[in-house]
Design a protein that fits this description.
about 250 residues, alpha/beta, TIM Barrel, seven-stranded parallel beta sheet, 10 helices, globular, TIM barrel protein, Xyl_isomerase-like_TIM-brl, Xyl_isomerase-like_sf, IolE/XylAMocC-like
Length: about 250
């Protein structure tokens, strides 16, 4: 079973990195996945994870910041034990509108990751929903991104795949060798959990996580990263994530 990790973005609205890491360690989490803003104060991040015996095998970073100063992220990887970085987002006004543009974006990602790969680190893309929406030319951005960057890894956020109108099982089958981590999040039934943007705790929503985890066994995913984009109670969410991981074989 892949390592149980937690995307720290889920707790951004709750006080205290030390408190969050202590909570996760108590629940049996083995690792955390930082997001870009936490690297502004790396000593606080290092202190919190080390004090609670947590690992940091993966992290999200801003693409422009990586392009501007890749050596910074090589150094952070050494200090934190990061093995793989994922770029997680591109703003709407920067998104291409056809297959050629998205293919070039994949190539841009590949170029940005080259200094990391030269140091033995992995680099890839973390999806949202927009990558699965057909462009006017009929192309699907995610296909184009992975085609343009053939050495990119993929951290598959399957709930966003579903929100993008795609079949996650088809994508897991098609790109199994490229998938090195998965975000485990869930979608509430229609009209529910609106105060949490329609997300629900892992294992309590509409996704069949038992079946999805069986499908993930055919990929290279070595991390299951629990995430909720807007929980009203991060402790509740974190506990549900640990419970799901245990139930599916953790």
């Amino acid at each position: 079973m892949p390592l149980l990790s937690y995307q720290l973005y889920s707790s951004r609205n709750f006080a205290g990195l030390d408190r969050t890491c202590a909570m996760l360690a108590d629940l049996g989490y083995q690792a955390v996945e930082p997001f870009g803003g936490l690297f502004d104060q790396p000593e606080a991040l290092i202190g919190a994870v080390e004090a609670n015996g947590l690992r940091v095998p993966s992290a999200h970073i801003n693409l422009a910041e990586l392009e501007r100063d890749p050596s910074r992220f090589v150094d952070l990887a050494g200090r934190l034990g990061i093995q793989t970085y994922y770029a997680p987002f591109i703003a709407p006004d920067q998104r291409p509108t056809d297959a050629a543009g998205w293919k070039e974006f994949g190539a841009r990602l590949s170029r940005a990751g080259a200094p990391l790969r030269a140091e033995g680190l992995g680099f890839g893309w973390h999806n949202h929903d927009f990558e699965f929406v057909a462009q006017d030319d009929g192309s699907i951005p995610m296909h184009s991104i992975l085609e343009g960057g053939p050495d990119l890894e993929w951290e598959a956020d399957l709930a966003w795949v579903v929100r993008g109108g795609a079949d996650p099982f088809e994508w897991l089958d098609s790109y199994a060798p490229r998938i090195t981590a998965a975000h485990i999040k869930d979608i509430a039934p229609q009209g529910e959990m609106l105060d949490e943007d329609g997300w629900s705790d892992p294992g309590t929503g509409t996704l069949d996580w038992a079946a999805l985890c069986r499908a993930l066994e055919g990929t290279r995913a070595r991390l299951f990263v629990m995430e909720h984009d807007n929980p009203s109670d991060d402790a509740r969410f974190a506990k549900a994530g640990a419970t799901l991981h245990a139930r599916i074989g953790g």
